[in-house]
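Weekly modeling sync, notes
Attendees: S.R. (lead), two postdocs, one rotation student

Agenda item 3: backlog of single-chain predictions. S.R. asked that every request posted to the team notebook include the full sequence so nobody has to chase files. The rotation student volunteered to paste the first one in as an example of the format we agreed on. Action items at the bottom.

Example entry:
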Amino acid sequence: MSQPDPSVIANVSDTAIWVAMYRALESERRDAVFHDPYARKLAGPRGPKILEAMPKARREYSWPMVVRTTVLDEIILRVVQKDGADAVLNLAAGLDARPYRMPFPPGLKWFDADLPDMISYKKSTLAGESPRCVLEYVPVDLTDVSQRRTLFARVGAAAKKVLVLSEGLLVYLSPEQVGTLASDLSAQPSFRWWAIDIVSPKILEQLKKLWGDQLDAAPLRFAPADGTGFFEQFGWNEREYRSTFKESLRINRTFRGARVANLLIKLSPKKKQEEAWRSGGIAVLENMRT
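Predicted structure, as returned to the notebook:
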């Protein structure tokens, strides 16, 4: 029997290995904007192979991933330290090592929820390492409505102010799946905030053209035309939006020609400016039912 190509993304969980490589490469820079000492180990031997197999992934498309990690780090710390979140529910946690690498209060409850195989791999890879908060690994299939509602009810009862994190998850779901997930989350009064990343339909089509063949097993699907307005019908309001493009300029992790593009955007009509800033970003949603 032939062995599968280690550079091929066989399922959505493999995208976590791909993204871990971006965190590893940034962490190894002298001027790194964040440090994830576990990323290279978690990416394993497949990480470099997957990254090299994705067209232009390393040279031209690393910056949005670095921006996403940096901005979410900042948001999570602020919500925990200033807004008083006492728990974080990390949906489709993948190979995120934040509980091990960030300066959280030791009493913070952190729930890493993902498929059993991913949880098993992550636990074994990080065996011997000590998290900086109260970490619980939760093997769960989030597409199973019964399983996730049971998890949400348990976490909702265990904390008063929960930040939900779904980094890199929603784009792989259908609008219907995102809607039911959003409803299930907002039904928990203690789920106060939800941090997401989101792209416009135009950006989604560009990514499909670039990586569509490589992502057959994990197709890109969710990019609502009304942006974060999509979530209002399910009980969530936008509290904060951080443009990926703007943030890339702030942290100096951007694409070639970005400064010129930024100038042209500023000279364009207000509607065009808003479309550019809203083409992709990181948002914090607030539970309207709280």
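Discussion: group reviewed the output briefly. The first strand starts at residue 87 and ends at 91.
Action items: rotation student to repeat for the remaining queue; S.R. to check formatting next week.
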